[in-house]
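Example record for the data management plan.
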Amino acid sequence: MDMNALTHEFGPLPRSSPFLEMVGPLQCRLKDDGLEIGLRIEQRHCNSRGYVHGGLLATIADLTLGYNTGMFGGQCDENTGLATASLTIDFAASANVGDWLSATAEVVSRGKRLGFANCYIAVGERRIARASGVFSVISR
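Corresponding structural encoding:
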């Protein structure tokens, strides 16, 4: 991810993929303690009951955990990447159409082979999910 493209205000996620294009539009901003990812919930992000889909929350958690572990968790260069080895998520509440989701992460550790991080997803001050991830450091 191009760190120079990131600001302290929300803007488009500078790195995307066909999958993320379907999920988005994802926003991000650089904070003192890492990258925050945000998304305004639309009808297409919801399940049949009208609440944000758990799969969307898992996707946002995985992105937030992975980007933060890669960018802020230790040495990262063009010859290495991360692959999700484990993702655990707990749903505490839900979100509705129009809500702004924000996800932040705390990198616990990043070594030569593994990285560990925790994530919270919130609507305003209300946390609706927490997640933890383990990432394998891979050579490209």
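Summary line stored alongside the record: The CA atoms of residues 86 and 122 lie 21 Å apart.
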